Amino acid sequence: MRKIKSTKHLVIKACAIATLLAGNFAGTALAWGPERTTYTNESPAPYATFNSITNNVAVGDERNFVRVGEVGSTEPYRDEIEVVPGKEYEVYVYYHNDAASNTNKDGYGMATNTRVSSGYPTTLKPGDRGMVSGIISWSYVTPEKPNDAQTGKVWDEAYLTTKSDNVILRFKAASAVIHNDGAANGSILPTALFSEEGTPIGFNKLAGTIPGCAEYSGYITYTIVAEQTKEDCTTNPDLPECKNPDCETNPDLPECKQPDCTTNPDLPECKQPDCTTNPDAPECQEKNCKTNPEMEGCQELPNTGPLEIIMAIIIIAGIGGGGYYLYRTKKTLKTAESTVKGKDSTKADSTIKADSATKSEPAKKEAKTTKEK
């Protein structure tokens, strides 16, 4: 693995600078911020400020201070690298208080509450450009405002890509380490490094104090492991099975059906009435003609006053009289028919006797004639 040596005893020569820049780093990053005043090795800052020298012997433009390299490779750190599952990658974050060394005694060059935070993507897929970030923050005072503490912050980014599906990245435990020429060198940094607030760094101890000048500079490294896993809702929350049920597209889901007494017998409307807990329920009321007028025997009898009784008597008398009149009429008619039949019989007998007498006269005459002869 490449190693960035201390710049404390480096001789600044043009050829040496070119060699170091080519050997240790590759690529140019433009994702740094914010826009700020820059300095050089020959003209450093008059107060504590970080990573603003543009011709640093070790790293070149300090604004590009976050890079990534493959563990075990001799290739230089880069601003962007392709990740392959099964390999490990080292993140590099450089820091340097650019104040001139002669400002430390007055306190203007001393950075206090210096903290570093970093972040990296936890998943990658083809087409992604996952960002690795580094942020340095600190407090300082200036000669113009010696009693007015101010806060500074600078940041930079590097990027990870992949051609593989379902790549996850995880932090390798206890791999975050600070490197410098002080007593704090080799100290393992806590996972607060990955929080928004970050973790304190320092030269001799991790208390946040870093004097100005290159001899107090250093860098932080940590390792992330690339693995490939089966796609699930964690790596791809857009999978159909990871989305909330949609009753419009899948109305047969249990939660999409209207509750009924078959599927949910505990619904209030599905329970049998309980007259103990709900005595006012209609089915719990005593049935009588007042509460249930439709019940048999509850219908009112017709309202029969004196007038109605008189009318009933008249009607009944009329019906009786009519019946008697019919009876008498039928009897009279029968008698008349009998009388008529009797007269017709007598007349018929008389006619028969007359006919017989008429027929006997010629016979008598014929008998008399015969006798005379």
Structure commentary:
The protein has a domain at 14-228. The radius of gyration is 62 Å and the shape is rod-shaped. The protein has 373 residues and is α+β, with helices and mostly antiparallel strands. Helices cover 21% and strands 20% of the residues. The chain has helices at residues 14-24, 306-372; strands at 25-26, 66-70, 77-78, 80-83, 88-95, 112-119, 123-124, 130-140, 150-162, 167-171, 177-179, 199-200, 218-228. The strands form three sheets. Strands 2, 5, 7, 10, 11 and 13 form a six-stranded antiparallel beta sheet that branches. A five-stranded mixed beta sheet has the order 4-9-8-6-12, with no helix packed on it. The longest helix has 67 residues, at 306-372.
Order of helices and strands: HEEEEEEEEEEEEEH
Distance between the termini: 194 Å
User: Helix/strand-derived class?
Assistant: alpha+beta
Mean pLDDT figure: 81
Number of strands: 13
In short:
The chain has 373 residues and is α+β, with helices and mostly antiparallel strands. It contains two helices and 13 strands; from the N terminus they run αβββββββββββββα. It has helices at residues 14-24, 306-372, and strands at 25-26, 66-70, 77-78, 80-83, 88-95, 112-119, 123-124, 130-140, 150-162, 167-171, 177-179, 199-200, 218-228.
